[in-house]
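ok so for the tutorial part 2 we go from a plain amino acid sequence to predicted C-alpha cells. step 1 is just haveing the sequence, like this:
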Amino acid sequence: YTVSNGQVNYNAIVLDRMAGPFIAGKRNSLPADTVNVYLNGKLQTGSYALAENDVYYTNEGMQTAWVYNSKVSGKLTALSPSESSPAAAFVAGKSYSLGTADASSALSSLGGSKIGSTVTLLLGMDDAVVGVLLGSSVNAEYTGFVASAIKAAGDEAELVTSLSLLTSDGQIRSFELDRAPALKPGQLVTVTLSGDSISAKSLSSKSISGRVNYSATAIGEYKLAENVQIIDSNGNGGGSIIEPEALAGAELKSNHVKYYIQNTRGEIEELFLENATDANWSFGLLTNAVSLILPGSITSSYTAIVNGVPRVFSFSGVAYNVDKGGFGYTFDAAGNPLSMKQLTRAALTSLNGDSAMAGNMRLSVAENVQVYLKDGDSYYLTDIDNVSVQRHELTAWYDDLGIAGGGRIRVITAEAKQ
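step 2 — the prediction. this is what the C-alpha cells look like for a chain of 418 residues:
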C-alpha cells in the first residue's frame, strides 16, 4: 500500500485487487461468497442477481462486487480521435470514453461499425464504455419529458426531428427521428430503439396519489424500488433529479405524478413528477413590479433580489399577479422565469433556528432562507443569526404552493425597531 500525508490510500488497494470489467451473459452470477454489492454506486441491502449485459467488477478478498446496469442507445454520430482507432464515441448527443479494447474495436471502422448506425453502449465504472451492442442486438426504450423537438432537413433532404429527451436519471438524450408526432417541451414520450429503427410516441398520464411514508420507500400502497429514479419536471422541458428522501412524509397529488414505470416485482423504478417539489422553484424579494396592459398588448417588468443579487425580469404578453415582497418562480434551463407566484406574508413573533412563530402559527424555516436588512428602500443580505424579534420587526414570506418540501419560510425582512 501507499501512504500520502500520513493516510493510507485505500482506493488504490481496492483497485489493485479488483477483477473486471466483465459483461454478464444470460447465466452469469456473482461469486458465491459475495457479501456486499454496489449497484451503480449504491450499496444494496439485499442480494443482487445479475441481468444480461450488466457490467460488473469483483474483489474476492473484500467479498464485494460493483455492478453497473447503465446503458446508452442511439445513433453513433462521431468517433474521436479517428474512426479507425477511436478513444471516444458520440452517442445520443454526448461523448463517452471507450474503456476497453473490445469496445474500441467494435466501434471502429476496422470492426465494421459506421457513423449513423444505431448502437447501445454498456457503461461501467466512471461511465466508461465496456461493451457495445450493434444491429439487431440494439433494443432499448427511454421514457422522459421532451426538452426540445426541432424539425429540420436531414442529410438526404428528408424531414427529420431532432429530439432531446430528459430521462428519469437526469440525462438529456438526443435522438434523430425520421417520423415523429408533433412534440412540444414538457410532453411525456417514449423513444423505442429496435435495430436501426428509432421511433417515438406520446404517453397519456398514468398517475397515482398518496402520502410518501417517512422512510421514503412507498407512496401509499405502491412500493418504491431501492434504486428508484425520480425526476421532477418544470412543465417546459427542464427538471431536477429528486432523491426519495426529499419526498418523505409528502402528500403527492394526482396532478403531480405524471407517469411511473414498475419493475417485475411491481415496485416503481421510474417516477415522473411535474412541479411536485421545491426543486424547480427559486425564491427572492420583489422590490418593484410594473405592468402595462393595453388593448392587444401586455408588458411587465419586475425588479428583484435573488440570493442577494439584483435581478430584473421583463416580459411581453404576460403579467403576473405579484407585488412587492417575497415571491417564487419556476425557471427554464437558462434560469429565466416560467411563472411567478407571491409568497404568503406573516409577522414573526419568535425566531429560533429552523422554527418560527407568527402568533399561534408555527412555521418551518428553509435551510437556504434569505434574510434581508431593510434600510429605507434598500435591502442588504445578512445571516439569520444576525436578526432577532427583540431588535427587529421581522416579516416572513413562506410558500403555500402545496408541494413536497414546501410550507417553509423562504424570505425574511428585518427592520430595526425604533
